[in-house]
Known about the structure:
- The strands form two sheets. A six-stranded antiparallel beta barrel has the order 1-2-5-4-3-12.
- The chain has three domains: 2-62, no CATH class; 70-168, Thrombin, subunit H (Beta Barrel); 174-261, Beta Barrel (Thrombin, subunit H).
- It has 279 residues and is an alpha+beta fold.
- 31% of the residues lie in helices and 27% in strands.
- It has helices spanning 2-8, 18-38, 44-62, 66-105, and strands at 110-120, 130-133, 146-149, 152-160, 165-169, 176-181, 186-191, 206-210, 221-224, 238-245, 255-260, 269-274.
- Residues 1-14 have low confidence and may be disordered.
- Strand 6 (176-181) and strand 7 form a beta hairpin.
Amino acid sequence: MRQLLRRLVPHHLGGLTRPALLGILLALTVLVLLVDLARPSATAPLRRAAATVLAPAQSAMTGWTDTELTDLTRERDALDARVKELEAQVRTSEQLTELERAAEGWGGHELLPARVVGFSSVGTPVGGRTVTIDAGERDGVAVDQTVVSSAGLVGRVVRAAPSSADVVLLGGSDVVVGVRFGEDGALGSVDGRAAPGLPPRASGELTLTSVGDSDIAEGDLVTTLGSPESVPYVAGIPLGTVTSVDPHSGQLGETAVVAPFVDPDTLDLVAVVVLGGNR
């Protein structure tokens, strides 16, 4: 084998180009493979050398028992679960901080945090899409309480059970909210329906109707007007912003399209506004 290599590979390769040298090495590789197939004993030293180098790694790999491997896998999975749990706690803490900061600007209402744990489709008996939260009567939740997120108004409680509650979201056919809009705080109402003769609304868009002859302008901020005794809506909660004003078509008040601040498809942590004596 050594004599064959000496004949094929000259002692001086300095004059060879890189392609030529690569060609020689490729030819030698093919030759070694052919020799290994024809005469395995000729390449036995090479296989022994490789086995010597790889033996410690192979020994380390095969030294583990099935029980040890199972234990290591269990510990790895437990650590992974703990990391995910801590990440979830961090996200919850950040969301709670955002809620508390927002509530300070809405009048400092007491908030009961809750997690959205279920959804229902449009067409429910209450006339709109609802979500289920993991707080209920035992926590002080009652029907017609306001529900918010850090972004603004979510909806109101329509059913309460001992440990859960259903919240109807904005945009339902039976969900009408009294609002103020614009710099002067003009009065109006917002619902999920467009009156006959108005342009169709895209999914999620709401309709603002002004009271009287108040003008609506694109970019106007829309907030809740508030209900008597703050039931079902407390005052001053951001609802959305005006994105376009409808052409006048004979309706009593001017109308416009409102984009809500809260996206119902991404709801996670919300809060029920707790009124005095409810907890």
